[in-house]
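Reviewer 2 asked us to include a model.

Predict the structure of this chain.
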Amino acid sequence: MKGYCGKILKVDLTNKTCTDVYIADEIYENFLSGAGLAAWWCYRNIPAGADPMGPENVLCITSGLLTSTGSCITGRWMVVTKSPSTGGIGEANCGGTFAPFIKACGYDIIAFHGASDTPVYLYCDDNGPVLKDASHIWGQDAAVAEKMLVEENTVPGKKIPQACTIGWGGENLSWMAGVCNDNGRIAARQGVGGVMGSKKLKGLCFAGNKPVSGENPEEIRRLSKMCAKRANMAFMPPEIPTGLLHVAKFLPEIQLSPDGIMTGVLMGTWGTGGSSQFAGQTGEAPVKNWSGSQKEDFHVRALNKTDGSHMLKLQTNRYYCYSCMYGCGGELDISHIKHNDQGYSRVHKPEYESQWDYTGFLLNEDNDAMLFINEYLNRAGMDAISVGGTVGMAIEAYENGLLKESDVGFPLHWGDADAIIRLVKMIVHREGIGDVLADGCKRAVEILGPEFAQYAVQGGGMEPPMHDSRPDPQQATLYAIDATPSRHTTGGSLYYGCMHLWKKVTWAPPAVLVGGKQGEWEVSDEESLKVLAAAYFKRIVDGVGGCYFGFLLGTAIYPIFEWTEAATGWGNTTDDLMWIGRRIFTLRHMFNIKQGLDPWYSRPHPRMVGEPPLKVGKVAGKTVPIDAKIMSVWKNAGFDEKTGIPLQETVEALNLPYFLDGPIENFIKEVPSRG
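Predicted model (structure tokens):
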């Protein structure tokens, strides 16, 4: 085997049929598996102008090419579809334990076409796939639904199934809903759970046993041992106080990108929440809906209440995703907190995004409220980033008189934990003003009026994460030029410094590891190539099932290129693989253009690029020359620099007309699935 199964399961929910679709090796050789293969399938099967919430949309759930081959930190699964929030390619990514169960059933992708008229779920084991009634599970939160699916499909003495589900958000067709596994771990972004809910698909439950391997398993094992040994060096006793990071506020603005092994120190000790103190002190975390600063609005005392060390005091155990040695996840006991009206006990440790979104971003110093909101949204199956951004818009609109108490039903102010919790619940269940806000900032502005746009911080229909792009022109540009806009998991200057791509890719410019950041503000081919190197590399990582925190270890420790070659035996150089990344990057933009999107649609909200700049704090005086940066990247990507549309010679050089418009029978063979 070459790491992939060579087969997609096509599920027609309208007609309740399942078909095995055999995919030619040529497609994998040009698009990998995972999100790359899913983007190819979506381009070929979703018609132009398709309603994202209609039966003509297609929902793909996929693992990666390297998943289950013996490689490390390659257990991610992805959901790819047409996004209701952006109108373009939608992509959400999740860890946990579900990814290998997709391949153990013999498939690289489960592609759902059409829509069911009643709630259903898909079960699959070695006997094949079957659609089952989910009426008794509809209405349950994501964690309860997952438990029910696993229990009713468990056979004594057999492999325990794994499942993914939607929660209330997906059932309510929210454009901010995701898909969950492992009791609330969530593929959250871009409304993929709402698409799943529109198809009346409650979940998937898998229990297959088919083997997966690569061409050279010995080399895969050798590389994995090296990766694990290096990554396990990254440890810091949790007793070291995070308060030491207060020194960050005294640092000058320099680029400091050490070997990516430091990522392991952070993940292995605190998880992602360990970065909150650093982000808050350095200005890397947006405050007060991107309008404030840590200096004026969320001071050191508040930061101390919300840092990662407080999470460790509540942690009952640490857990690991499939094939990962980081163990950045953990369970907390929050049974004692005052806001816990749902009776939650053991819950997921908040990721940094949730931790900051519901503290510093909303000026909330009540850490218990953040813990409750995090778990509530996990179980509801809702994107914590987008919900938090939408709450921020609502609070600022209320503070400035655009929303009235009669509109909301209660006063809504910065830092009011009880009001924030109440509004979050209304959004989840589409109650009152929550119905207007349930599809995110951009949609809310369309309903409420253009005067709300000044507070609706979004780019391309997506609320940005808790990573401020004003001090990082690379990240600001990536927010703008990726086909799935306003997401931080593609790169940025700090991340690029950790990746060390220039050591493997002949054309990738080196980062300035220690020194001034002035060069990043320039509009140059070199800076644009850094952005594109990160973007193309992320396409590879998502094609093989890799993890964002894995690639931050750096290519010397996290050998994605070498693992891929060992698994496939294709004979590709690293530059060849980056060419594949470029092909997938371009394909995703072509999907958006096919759906009628102007590439400029994802230009970030003015606040995200410092228009106008803040007057105080770490990002004071910063304005990213975003339009010039965007056009320079497009030029270097082989796109028209003014329109963002791929040039014909670029499309032809990547052989995309053949793959996207050629006869489909050249690439697939359909056989009715048994089951």
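The CA atoms of residues 338 and 410 lie 20 Å apart. Confidence is low (pLDDT under 50) at residues 237-248. We have added this to the supplementary material.
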